[in-house]
Amino acid sequence: MNFTLGFKPAMGDSSSVENLEKQLICPICLEIFTKPVVILPCQHNLCRKCANDVYKASNPLWQNRGPVSTGGRFRCPSCRHEVVLDRHGVYGLQRNLLVENIIDIYKSESTRPLLPKAEQQQLMCDQHEEEKVNIYCLTCETPTCSMCKVFGAHKDCDVAPLPDIYKRQKTELSDAIAILVAGNDRTQALISQMEDIGRTIKENGHRQMQYISDKFDELYAILEDRKRELIETVGREQDQKQGHVRSLIRRHGDHLEMSVKLVETAIQSMEEPQMAVFLQSAKEVFKKITDTAKASNTERTEVGYESMAHFIINTEDVADMLRGINFQTGEDVEDRGDEAPEDPTTSLGQTGESGRCI
């Protein structure tokens, strides 16, 4: 059904008055604030009744504890700021006397109904131009006029006074808004909880990664120490063998030098032209040659003395064990002396991968 809009002239239609009226609209019931008006910590205002409705919708378990609740919380419908209540509930919120005084002044100065601007428009029936829309057709679920009910399309329908349906649907919409706001609060709380869990997961992951890194650093240190010990063992035998070979080289070198000099002396004796002189010196040369031959040292190292192949280590088993390092179960951890750093989630009774250790 179509309607035409008729406007009633009223005092105070200026933009300043309209702006003032907008500031006096409750964001829950969408009406002018009903006293008492309470101010929230975020400086937004609500009718106390609307604040109580939002509070009860956000805390359904406390709805049956009487008119005064023992604490609780809800979120401001305007800015989503969390409002924490004391044991007096919404009755512990401070009244905004300034807003209440402004409402009184506005009511005394304004001659038009204190309703939102959209509701000041008077709907006129498009079938009966002189008739105002003043009833509601329950069958067709649409506003209509009295003439339509008596003579028009709605004469066989069930109708009700328009203000009654208006108040009922306004109440239903307010309750739906409160339920939606409460649902938003629960969703926001869930998001906050998930964000906290995400931060905890990140912290626990960094902690366990550092723990694993420290454990492997300990293994690296053990391997480095053992490598140094084994290398020092090989180095000691190497130095010992090289020292023995050098001593043999020196002794054989000294013998060779003596023998060369003796050969030179013998050659000089062979060049002596005088037989008598040759015979006198040859006897001594023969004696030196004989003594040198007897003193000849043919000591040498045994076969394979130079080999260092006996310094062999088998790392296959250790390598397999290192490759098999993995996270242990909770029962295995209880049997070990070294424990992983405590995970805050496990101390709260939660279980998960972050509680494992190597």
The secondary structure category is mainly alpha
Separation, N- and C-terminal Cα atoms: 76 Å
Number of helices: 9
What number is the mean pLDDT?
79
Helix percentage range: 40-55%
Number of strands: 9
**Spans of at least 5 consecutive residues with low confidence:** 1-12, 347-358
Biggest sheet descriptor: 3 strands, antiparallel
Q: What strand order characterises the main sheet? A: 8-7-9
- The oligomeric status of these chains comes to single chain
Strand content: 5-15%
Reading the helices and strands in chain order gives EHEEHEEHEEEHEHHHHH
From the spread of the alpha carbons, the general shape counts as rod-shaped
Q: Report the C-alpha radius of gyration, rounded.
A: 54 Å
Keywords: Coiled coil, Cytoplasm, Differentiation, Metal-binding, Microtubule, Zinc, Zinc-finger
Domain RING-type: 26-80
Protein name: Tripartite motif-containing protein 54
InterPro entries: COS_domain, TRIM/RBCC, Trim54_Bbox2_Zfn, Znf-RING_euk, Znf_B-box, Znf_RING, Znf_RING/FYVE/PHD, Znf_RING_CS
Question: What distinguishing features does this structure have?
Answer:
two-stranded antiparallel sheet, 358 residues, mainly alpha, 9 helices, three-stranded antiparallel β-sheet, disordered N terminus
Helix/strand layout:
Blueprint: E1 3-7, H1 15-23, E2 37-39, E3 45-47, H2 48-58, E4 72-75, E5 82-85, H3 97-109, E6 121-125, E7 135-137, E8 142-144, H4 146-150, E9 159-161, H5 162-270, H6 275-294, H7 316-323, H8 330-334, H9 344-347
Antiparallel strand pairs: 1-6, 2-3, 4-5, 7-8, 7-9
Helix pairs in contact: 2-5, 5-6
